[in-house]
Structures are given as C-alpha cells and as structure tokens.
Amino acid sequence: MSRYRQRMSFRHPERDAIRVDAVLSALGNPVRLAAVRSLDKDGDRNCGNLLAEIGVSAKSTMTHHWRVLRDAGVIWQHQHGREYQLSVRREDLDARYPGLLDAILAGAARDEAA
Questions:
Q1: pTM for the model
Q2: Which residue range or ranges hold the HTH arsR-type domain (predicted)?
Q3: Which domain holds residue 64?
C-alpha cells in the first residue's frame, strides 16, 4: 500500500439526474441547510473553514452530510491541493427547478429571524 493518500474523485449526478425529492430531503437537515446557506452567501469554501463556521467539530459527521448534498446534486465537491472545496450547484439547480433554491434559502432566513 502506498504511503501517499490517493486523490479522491467524487461522483456528482448529471444535471438531468437531479431529483427534487433528493434536493428537498438533503436540505431538510438543519446542518446541511446551514452549510448550503453559507456556501450560497459566501461562495466556494474549503471544508475545514465551513465546518468551523457552522459549528460542527466532527469531520466524520460532515463527511456524511457532504455526501448527501453531493449525491442530491446540491453541491460540487472537489480536491484543491490538500483541501476539499465546496460550492453550490446553483446553475444546475436553477435550470432544473427555477426558484426552488431561492425559496428554500429565503424561508430559512425568515425562520432564523423569527
């Protein structure tokens, strides 16, 4: 076994394979919703910085959340040096379901303010 870590390649669904039920299910979790809200507001982020911002300390927990978001077609995740970069698949989500992400994020902001 090589002592060097292999580069991880993530699978992302094609735009046409993104399903509304998977998107809604992924964003139905408060931790994942907080992560997507932050990514949408601030743009691409590395996983470590985003973990600190949303207040999650267990990397293994977030690994699961990243997978759910990625598999649902909500985020892009790719390796950037030693870090993993995350970004919202806004263009794909807006093309598939116009206004859905905006409505969810606006609703979350209203709920937080209440």
A1: 0.86
A2: 12-108
A3: 17-107
- 50 HSE (CA, 13 A, CB side): 29
CATH of the domain at 40: 1.10.10.10
The amino acid sitting at 79 is Q
Q: What is the tens place of the pLDDT at every residue in 43-79?
A: 888 877 777 777 776 677 788 899 999 999 999 998 8
CB atoms closer than 10 angstroms to residue 60? 6
58 is a domain residue: yes
- What letters, b where the CB count within 10 A reaches 16 and e where it falls short, cover 70-86? bebbbbbbeeeeeebbb
The total of structural domains in the chain comes to 1
